[in-house]
Amino acid sequence: MQVAETIAQCRRAVAEARASGKVVGFVPTMGALHEGHYQLIDAARRECGFVVVSIFVNPTQFAPGEDLSRYPRTPQADLAGCERRGADLVFLPGPAEMYPRGRTEVEVTPGRLAETLCGRSRPGHFAGVCTVVAKLLNIVQPQKAYFGAKDFQQAVIVARMVEDLDFPVEVVRCPTVREADGLAMSSRNRYLSPAERAQAAALSRALAAAEEIIRSGPRASADVVAAVRERLAAEAPDGQIDYVQVVDPRTLEDVEVARPAVLVALAVRFGGARLIDNVLVDGPAAGG
Fold first, then answer.
1. Strand 89-91 versus strand 144-148 pairing type
2. Cβ-count burial of 185 within 10 angstroms (0-12 exposed, 13-18 middle, 19+ buried)?
3. Distance in angstroms (rounded) separating the CA atoms of residues 53 and 218
4. Residue 6: partners with Cβ closer than 8 Å, 6 or more residues away
5. Beta-ladder partners of 267
């Protein structure tokens, strides 16, 4: 496995792979890797001949007061994990390499894609995401890029940016990977105290309950949201709900009536940890 710390080194390694006819798959990460990241690498490994993983804690997607300074950084463990899972190249730049003269921001896509869900409480976040992803796609120039469905809004926005700006890359969205009790894997889970960790498992149970309600027949979205909030209040009393929404999975616009296919998404804070999760209720409802 190769490790590149500069853009020039990364481009040389990828150019050699492309020259030999290999399809390049790319997994962008901020490090502190867990099984969710590794399954993205696995997916890229199955479909591509050369797999690139980037590890970069991107400062442009953190608002003032967010957890940039304490975001977990475990580069040696991450490199070892990437090698075990078969990555061919890890791109490990620093901020000065990625933003040597400040940055030119990529505008977030039209409409409400970045103004709803996480965008309401994290202004500027998705502009930072789009900026770094655009840079990384230009540097790596993969044929396929892999993103997890836990960050559903991010994946939708990146796919729209790729389409609007004509990047020659396929955005592949992979399923959310969960702990045994259903908690979506996240680098921020390590912030949780034991008591918070136990309560955090309620997020996936509340989403499962929402899916069951929706599959039983069309329901007012407000009723689904109320049911999720009630369950979270009972099972995760230390959690502060940021949002619970029922949206169209393509536009991320709120919908009044919940029926397949909709996305139920939520964000809940436990102390210094802001956790997000979602369920895509797809396919026909029970009884047709």
1. unpaired
2. middle
3. 42
4. 93, 97
5. 243, 276
Domains of the chain: 2-174 (3.40.50.620), 187-280 (3.30.1300.10)
Q: Rounded to two decimals, what is the model's pTM?
A: 0.94
Q: Which amino acid is at 222?
A: A
Of 59-68, 110-119, 234-243, where does the model show the most confidence? Answer: 234-243
How many Cα atoms occupy the beta-carbon half-sphere of 95 within 13 Å? 8
The Cα diameter of the chain in Å comes to 59
Mean of per-residue pLDDT scores for the chain: 94
DSSP assignment string, 68-95? TTTS---HHHHHHHHHHTT-SEEE---H
First vs last Cα of the chain: how many Å apart?
50
- Give the pLDDT confidence score for residue 50 in this predicted structure: 98
CB 134 within 8 A of CB 161: yes
* Contacts for 175 with CB less than 8 Å, ≥ 6 apart: 148, 149
Distance from C-alpha of 22 to C-alpha of 50, rounded to nearest angstrom: 6
C-alpha span between 136 and 115 (Å, rounded)? 24
Q: From 223, 227, 221, 233, select the one nearest 208 (Cα to Cα).
A: 227
> What does the angle CA 18 – CA 165 – CA 115 come to, to the nearest 5 degrees?
125
Catalytic residues: 37
Statement: residue 286 has pLDDT above 70: no
Cα–Cα distance between 288 and 267 in angstroms, integer? Answer: 31
